[in-house]
Automatic annotation (TrEMBL):
Keyword annotations from UniProtKB, A to Z: Nucleotidyltransferase, Transferase
A Pfam entry, by short name: NTP_transferase
Protein name: Glucose-1-phosphate thymidylyltransferase
Keyword Nucleotidyltransferase in annotation: yes
Source organism of the structure: uncultured Thermomicrobiales bacterium
Domain Nucleotidyl transferase: start-end pairs: 7-234
InterPro entries per the UniProt record, alphabetical: Mannose-1P_guanyltransferase, NTP_transferase_dom, Nucleotide-diphossugar_trans
Length: 336
């Protein structure tokens, strides 16, 4: 089985953090977003991982090639024409079955039911999560046996609370490519983009049996507030301690915290739910529920619910911030 990871988007909802760093490389709980995704996929021992890149794709290629030994191929989407168009670009390198997953999703899922799926007369799988308000997402409508009968993108009045989490398995990628060709030829696009859900609906209309499987955990990373929630989840998931504060020199760490060994902390209180990147420096800082990138400098400040990208410097008073790379905030006194 091959794995296809579309990741060519601009990450506009995460700006300013994605102006000069592609979304898959944004820091999250001590790693990058793509690290967390691959941690969950590589145990499947894929034949090959195919990354569909575009904006700042060379950074993604350099990062993955420098850290992973898995067979990996990079396909460039030159124009942002949506998910389905991106997947169509892999037709020359994928035959047979494949797992397709959007790379900005953090999940926990059981993939064991995929083994022997085709032998049981099932053409593919759609992973879903039951949520209270699915209007921001695509939804799946099922029959009594759990097979998808209809996929609806961002419904105003949803008739199902099963959100599409962006993970699909197709036993025959050739059939999906044919459906995408039909979709693009029809011109059915939203704001110039062709959605995978519309191509999958064509497969369903053509008689394919696509079974749905629930996931217990699905954390989106599309917006800053969602990034912070996912950071909290991942830090808590990996933490095995009793929650007691930890002395760190003249500072206090309140778990769970991801602290890079090269970061320097002095006279600070860090945590809970804080991720601090390589080479970051904190002096006289109180910080909680935040993500601090590489080489960030913080001094004499208090932060909560903040994302500070690489190279930023904040020296000042209590505030709530959402800063991009190389930004700088300085407290100005009355005399200045």
């Amino acid at each position: 089985m091959k794995i296809i990871l579309p990741m060519a988007g601009f990450g506009t909802r995460l700006r300013p953090h994605t102006w000069d760093v592609p979304k898959p490389l944004v820091p999250l709980a001590g790693k990058t977003m793509i690290d967390h995704v691959l941690d969950r996929l590589l145990p499947l021992e894929p034949e090959e991982v195919i990354c569909i890149v575009g904006y700042l794709g060379e950074q993604i290629e350099e990062y993955i090639k420098g850290r992973y030994s898995v067979p990996v191929r990079f396909v460039v989407q030159p124009e942002m024409r949506g998910q389905a168009d991106a997947i169509a670009l892999t037709r020359d390198v994928v035959a047979g079955d494949a797992l397709v997953m959007f790379a900005d999703t953090i999940f926990e899922a059981d993939f064991s039911p995929l083994r022997g799926l085709r032998a049981r007369g099932i053409d593919g799988a759609i992973f879903v999560k039951e949520i209270d308000d699915p209007r921001r997402f695509g939804i799946a409508i099922l029959d009594a046996e759990g097979y998808a009968t209809q996929l609806v993108e961002k419904p105003e009045n949803p008739t199902s609370n099963l959100a599409l989490v962006g993970i699909y398995y197709f036993a025959d990628m050739g059939a999906l490519y044919d459906a995408i060709d039909t979709l693009i030829a029809s011109g059915k696009a939203l704001k110039g983009e062709y959605y995978l859900a519309d191509a999958v609906q064509l497969l369903i209309d053509r008689g394919q049996r696509l079974k749905t499987f629930p996931v217990p955990v699905w954390e989106d990373c599309g917006k800053p507030e969602e990034m912070l929630q996912t950071n909290r989840y991942l830090l808590a998931r990996e933490y095995m301690g009793d929650g007691r504060p930890i002395l760190h020199g003249d500072s206090v760490i309140i778990p769970p915290v991801a602290l890079d060994p090269s970061a320097t902390i002095g006279r600070s209180i860090v945590g809970p739910h804080v991720s601090i990147g390589a080479g970051a420096t904190l002096s006289g800082v109180v910080i909680a529920d935040s993500i601090v990138g590489d080489a960030v400098s913080l001094a004499n400040t208090a932060l909560t619910g903040s994302i500070i990208s690489a190279g930023a410097a904040i020296h000042g008073t209590e505030q709530r911030l959402n800063l991009g790379a190389t930004s700088s905030v300085r407290h100005v006194t009355a005399s200045e």
